[in-house]
Structure formats: C-alpha cells, structure tokens
Design a protein that fits this description.
Layout: H1 2-24, H2 27-34, H3 38-43, H4 56-62, H5 80-83, H6 85-116, H7 120-132, H8 141-151, H9 157-182, H10 185-193, H11 198-209, H12 211-226, H13 230-235, H14 244-249, H15 259-279, H16 281-290
Helix pairs in contact: 2-15, 4-15, 6-9, 6-12, 7-9, 9-12, 10-11, 12-16
Length: 295
C-alpha cells in the first residue's frame, strides 16, 4: 500500500511538471523574441538563444513609436498599431474593468433569483443560458453589427462594453448558480428577521460572504474580456476606440510583419491578467470549489 502511494505521488508530480511545462514553454520563445531585434531574429531563425538582447521593442511600444532606439534606426516603415498602443491599452483596461463589474452585478442578482425564488421561469432561464453558449460567436457578428449601427453605438466603447456584458453574462450565471445553491439560506433569513429587506440582505450578507466566488468569476470574466478580439474588431473601426487585441492583429500587414514587436506587445498584454491571477490566487481556488458540493 505504501509502495503504491509512493509510486502514485511520483506519477502525480511528474504529471504536474509536464502540465506546467506544456503551459509555460510556449511563452519562452515569446520572451526571447521580445528581447531581441528584428534583424537578429532574421539573421538566424534556428538559433535557440538570440545573439544579443535589447529592450528597444518595449521602448518603441511604450513611447508610441517616438523612441525607436538602435534596433529600428534603419527602418522607415512602422505600423500604425505601434502609435495606437497606449490608447488601446487604456481602452482595454476600461472595457475589461467595466465589463467585469457590470457582469458580476447582473450575474449575482440573476443567480440569487434563480436559486431563491422557486418560479417556473427560472428553470427555462437556466436552460436558455446554457443553450445560448452553444451558438458560435461568429454567427452573431452580422446581426450584432446591424443592431449596433441602428442604436448608434458603432465606434464607441459603450457599444463594446454592452455587447461583451450580454455575451459574458451567461458564463457568470452558470458559474455563480451552484455557489448560491450551496449558500446557507438561514443567513439571509436571519438578516430579514433583523429588519433587512431582500435586497438589503443581498448587499450586507450575501455579497460580503461571496467574495471567493465573485473573485473567481470576476477573474474569468476579466480575462475573457481582456483578450476578446472579434467584438471590438466588428464594432470599432476608428483607432481611438480600438482595444489591445485589435492593435495586435493590426501588426500583420502586407508589407512586413514585426515579429519582435508583436511578441513584446503580447508580453505587455499578458501582464495585467497574470498580475490579477497572482493577487487573487487564494480566492480563485476557494471560489471555483465552493459550489462543487451542495449543502
């Protein structure tokens, strides 16, 4: 028995190492590519390590194309996406943050309604929520464009936020419903006996005690919204309303593809989501497992 346990532990540790390597190794060439010049990259595409390292890619991006550095001195053409980076980064922060907050507010109210009010339509709502996630997003793009044009929300951050909230709300509801089903109803009933209304019990009791689930759901929604490409690409065509994934896609042109600049933007784009996950790591584990067992 002990021998089997010993072998099982070794097997699980090796499996964990393989999974971690599978997830992290694709980032290694991105990091190495971002730390070298385009000339060095094309001189020897088979080299595992660059011959020289430079931060000119990050200087170029963060300065909006003004500080070229030595790596870009001989290059006359630079994509417009480089000059739009700072504005696009701020747009992504605004969009992802607003989508996360609005989605959590609406999802908690909906999930609590589904689990607390025993109404016939709540079952149909959950079924419709699950079915809506089976529709490919690309199928909705043409109707979405027409609706946004009729509402006058094309080329606006509010149009992007409204669309992403509508499409991510079912995800949040599906995540939060199992948690609220396991949430003790007695706590809400005690608050109501003390004079709280149903909404007051929600604000003062349910929300503070649901921090792990809300944090886990919020991180998932933020990551999906932060990396969303198709919706901003369809709704926003003007540079001032573009988000980071759209700017990254714009680096691929008919004239030239700046691989090192693209890799540097990828690393900068990964930083907010990575930082958010690290800060809320303890809440993620609790939140994702809190509703796994009812009662």
């Amino acid at each position: 028995m002990n021998r089997m346990t010993w072998r099982y532990r070794i097997f699980m540790n090796l499996a964990n190492v393989l999974v971690i390597c599978f997830l992290i190794l694709p980032l290694v060439p991105v990091v190495l590519g971002a730390l070298q010049s385009e000339r060095t990259l094309h001189e020897d595409v088979w080299a595992l390590l660059p011959a020289e390292y430079t931060l000119d890619n990050f200087r170029l991006i963060l300065s909006g194309g003004e500080n070229k550095g030595e790596a870009f001195q001989g290059i006359d053409y630079l994509p417009n996406s480089v000059t739009w980076f700072r504005n696009a980064f701020l747009n992504s922060v605004l969009v992802a943050g607003s989508v996360t907050v609005l989605t959590l507010v609406l999802a908690t109210l909906t999930a609590l309604t589904v689990t607390r009010l025993k109404l016939n339509w709540t079952g149909y709502l959950m079924n419709a929520t699950v079915v809506s996630r089976m529709v490919p997003l690309i199928v909705l793009m043409l109707p979405l464009f027409v609706v946004m044009r009729n509402l006058g929300l094309l080329n606006s951050l509010s149009g992007i936020i409204m669309t992403e909230v509508g499409l991510l709300l079912p995800y949040a509801i599906i995540i939060l419903v199992p948690y609220f089903q396991a949430f003790p109803k007695e706590l809400e009933e005690s608050a109501r006996l003390d004079g709280c209304s149903r909404f007051g019990a929600y604000v003062r009791i349910v929300v503070p005690l649901s921090t792990p689930a809300l944090a886990a759901c919020g991180v998932i929604i933020f990551i999906i919204s932060w990396h969303e490409l198709l919706i901003p690409l369809i709704i926003a065509s003007k540079p001032e309303f573009m988000t980071l994934p759209v700017v990254l896609a714009g680096l691929v042109s008919d004239q030239f593809v700046f691989f090192t600049v693209m890799m540097a933007i990828c690393l900068i784009g990964l930083a907010p989501t990575l930082l958010l996950v690290l800060l809320l790591q303890k809440y993620l584990v609790k939140g994702l497992t809190a509703g796994a067992v009812k009662g």
